TrEMBL record:
<dbReference type="InterPro" id="IPR002017">
    <property type="entry name" value="Spectrin_repeat"/>
</dbReference>
<protein>
    <recommendedName>
        <fullName>Dystrophin</fullName>
    </recommendedName>
</protein>
<dbReference type="Pfam" id="PF00435">
    <property type="entry name" value="Spectrin"/>
</dbReference>
Length: 128
């Protein structure tokens, strides 16, 4: 019996001809940025003193996001790998190239920040 086939994320089967679509029509980069914003918003919710239920729920949300980090890291890696060829070979204007390059750089910086924040918050303990 053969092992079960793993479902590939859509970004794992890109080719050069649809790279521009990755950054525009399909907009995986925007989806990734939205996930980062969601994660940042959850991480920023301050705990209410004495509200054990709120703290427990927040920690659970953070832990779920932390579980997604490896998948999200793979998506960002693919975006970075496909971003270079898009910026060099895609028939897009220099302004659009700059815009995409800056967005990708900002996404990488935000990724580092959110990854550290989520990891730190996931190590917090709920009040028993």
């Amino acid at each position: 019996m053969s092992p079960p086939r793993r479902k590939k994320h859509p970004l794992t089967s890109l080719n050069v001809w649809n790279l521009k679509n990755t950054f525009t029509e399909n907009d995986y980069l925007n989806e990734f940025v939205l996930w980062l914003e969601k994660a940042d918003n959850i991480a920023r919710i301050p705990p209410e003193p004495g509200n054990e239920q709120q703290l427990k729920e927040k920690l659970e949300q953070v832990k779920l996001l932390v579980e997604e980090l490896p998948l999200r890291q793979g998506i960002l890696k693919q975006l970075n790998e496909t971003g270079g060829p898009v910026l060099v070979s895609a028939p897009i204007s220099p302004e659009e190239q700059d815009k995409l390059e800056n967005k990708l750089k900002q996404t990488n910086l935000q990724w580092i920040k959110i990854g550290l924040t989520l990891t730190q918050k996931s190590k917090q303990k709920a009040v028993p």
